[in-house]
């Protein structure tokens, strides 16, 4: 699984979506993260075909939405997603949110898709430790990925440690905290100035050096190019500690406990 991919949340204009994803793939992105609820699986599939990059060189993720959760419902939802994407398989399929009373069965359906080689990796999203423990109790194959909100104001240290101990890779959604105040933080601006990078690039580098998978979203070609241009510098241990210290346990998205 590539460590840096393109998130397509809230990409709603069909033409803009296809253009953005196609540009990203041509720029060097090899992972695209979509979901049934985003309403752009069709456009994602179209962009994959337009990119000219062989399917086997791409890593495509989608997610089952809350209203489709449960064992049989998840299997049907997956078929719909695959049809919209016009793909033969997905590289990763996730439970989008831990819907009470059904998220364990949803994951069991994802396991079946893995057994049938319709997906290459199993996973969940927005699962706290107690959700994961409930999944573990019934799972034959533990989730390989947990996609959760992570950024310098919500570093999720206990959850990340638990996932590391259980060989679960963590993907950061809203990795830039949806922009705003964080991008104008004086510390990040100062570090960026030192390396000739933007605050967004510093944050993406922080994710990568924190052993996180990161999926920044943008429809702007310049930003798409900027977000992947982070391989030519490295944050010091001291800088990493200072960025960690920005943590406020502050969410920009919903809390899985009450979503």
Spell out the key features of this protein:
8-stranded parallel sheet, 259 residues, TIM Barrel, alpha/beta
Helical content (DSSP H or I, runs of 4+): 40-55%
Q: Tell me the quaternary state.
A: single chain
Distance between the termini: 28 Å
Mean pLDDT: 97
Biggest sheet statistics = 8 strands, parallel
Number of strands: 8
Fourth CATH level, the homologous superfamily: NADP-dependent oxidoreductase domain
The structural class is alpha/beta
Q: What are the secondary-structure elements, in order, as H or E? A: EHEHEHEHEHEHEHHEHH
Principal-axes geometry comes out as: globular
The CATH architecture comes to Alpha-Beta Barrel
Low-confidence runs of at least 5 consecutive residues: none
CATH topology: TIM Barrel
Give the total of domains: 1
Order of strands, widest sheet? 1-2-3-4-5-6-7-8
Q: What Rg, in angstroms, do the CA atoms define?
A: 18 Å
Helix segment count? Answer: 10
What does this structure look like?
By secondary structure, the protein is an alpha/beta fold. 42% of the residues lie in helices and 12% in strands. It has a single domain, classed as TIM Barrel, CATH 3.20.20.100. The chain has ten helices and eight strands. It has an eight-stranded parallel beta sheet with strand order 1-2-3-4-5-6-7-8. β4, α4 and β5 form a beta-alpha-beta unit. α2 packs across α3 (71-85).
């Amino acid at each position: 699984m590539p460590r840096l991919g393109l998130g397509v949340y809230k990409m709603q204009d069909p033409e803009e979506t296809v253009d953005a994803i196609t540009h990203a793939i041509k720029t060097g992105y090899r992972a695209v993260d979509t979901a049934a609820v985003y309403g752009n699986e069709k456009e994602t599939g179209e962009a994959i075909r337009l990119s000219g990059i062989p399917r086997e060189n791409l890593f495509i993720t989608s997610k089952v939405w809350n209203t489709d959760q449960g064992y049989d419902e998840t299997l049907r939802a997956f078929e719909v997603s695959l049809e919209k994407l016009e793909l033969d398989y997905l590289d990763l399929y996730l439970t989008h949110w831990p819907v009470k009373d059904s998220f364990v069965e949803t994951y069991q359906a994802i396991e079946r898709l893995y057994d049938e080689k319709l997906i290459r990796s199993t996973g969940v999203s927005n699962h706290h430790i107690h959700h994961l423990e409930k999944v573990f109790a019934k799972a034959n194959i533990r989730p390989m990925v947990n996609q959760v909100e992570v950024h310098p104001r919500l570093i999720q240290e206990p959850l990340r440690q638990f996932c590391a101990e259980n060989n679960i890779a963590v993907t950061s959604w809203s990795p830039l905290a949806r922009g705003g105040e964080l991008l104008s933080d004086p510390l990040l601006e100062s570090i960026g100035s030192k390396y000739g990078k933007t605050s967004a690039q510093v944050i993406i580098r922080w994710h990568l050096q924190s052993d996180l998978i990161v999926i920044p979203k943008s429809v702007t070609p310049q930003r798409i190019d900027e977000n992947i241009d982070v391989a030519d510098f490295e944050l010091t241990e001291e800088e990493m500690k200072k960025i960690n210290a920005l943590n406020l346990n502050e969410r920009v998205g919903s809390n899985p406990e009450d979503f």
